[in-house]
Specification:
Number of strands: 5
Largest sheet: 5 strands, mixed
Helix content: 40-55%
Length: 227
């Protein structure tokens, strides 16, 4: 059940496959990067811990990535490989070693801190609650999640250097953060984005990109829009 994605802007001699459901933020990070670089790929919409996921990641996580007979897992490793193996007019990782290190720093920060605070601490709390679960325990979890998410987003807001997170060009940290905020935008806590002027402008800019639109099917935002 592979899905064709992308436009043939880069000559491909071997098949590229992305394993992971579009609902996954890290899978979407990689699919956005592939679209940004014009790389044709197939997407196998595997869920975490499914047989397809476990076949290529020792912990059954997603995404995993195939280029010809070469398999790779973990999003940061995949992102580095994509820029190193598919040269094009679009680069998502700087050639300057210090600039690239800063980009890795923020991609790691987003994956290590923003993802658990927002996705696990708030978004999934909202999604997992039934109507009759709105009690003091639920309210306390939401308040805790909002506080932790706000702290992370304040750090990011203070660090934005231009129209994109690190300046005038799209880089991998933009693509790590965008799917998380897309999910947040689908909840009642979306004002955590729009109450921060630089973050709101950045998110609106990212949401206007072709890579955002092409990878939106199957995401939380797309599912909520149908309700």
């Amino acid at each position: 059940n592979a899905e064709y994605m992308g436009e043939p802007l880069v000559e491909m001699s071997t098949l590229v496959t992305l394993v992971g459901t579009p609902f996954s933020t890290f899978t979407r990070t990689i699919s956005m990067g592939l679209v940004e670089k014009g790389i044709v790929f197939e997407q196998v919409p595997a869920l975490p811990h499914s047989e397809d996921a476990k076949a290529h990641h020792p912990m059954g996580r997603i995404p995993s990535f195939r280029h010809g007979d070469f398999w790779l897992f973990e999003s940061l490793a995949i992102s580095r490989y994509i820029d190193g193996s598919f040269p094009s007019s679009v680069t998502l990782r700087s050639q300057d070693i210090r600039a690239a290190a800063i980009e890795d720093q923020w991609a790691s920060f987003i994956a290590g801190y923003a993802f658990p605070a927002l996705e696990h601490g708030l978004i999934k709390v909202r999604l997992g609650a039934s109507v009759d679960a709105h009690n003091e325990q639920y309210d306390a979890k939401v308040a805790e999640g909002q506080h932790a998410s706000s702290a992370i987003l304040d750090i990011i807001e203070a660090s934005i250097r231009g129209p994109f997170l690190l300046g005038s060009e799209v880089r991998w940290p933009d693509l790590f953060l965008t799917p998380i905020l897309s999910d947040l935008n689908a909840t009642v806590d979306r004002n955590l984005i729009y109450s921060r002027p630089k973050l709101a402008a950045w998110f609106q800019l990212m949401a206007s990109r072709d890579s955002y639109t092409r990878t939106s099917a199957g995401t939380l935002e797309a599912k909520q829009a149908k309700l």
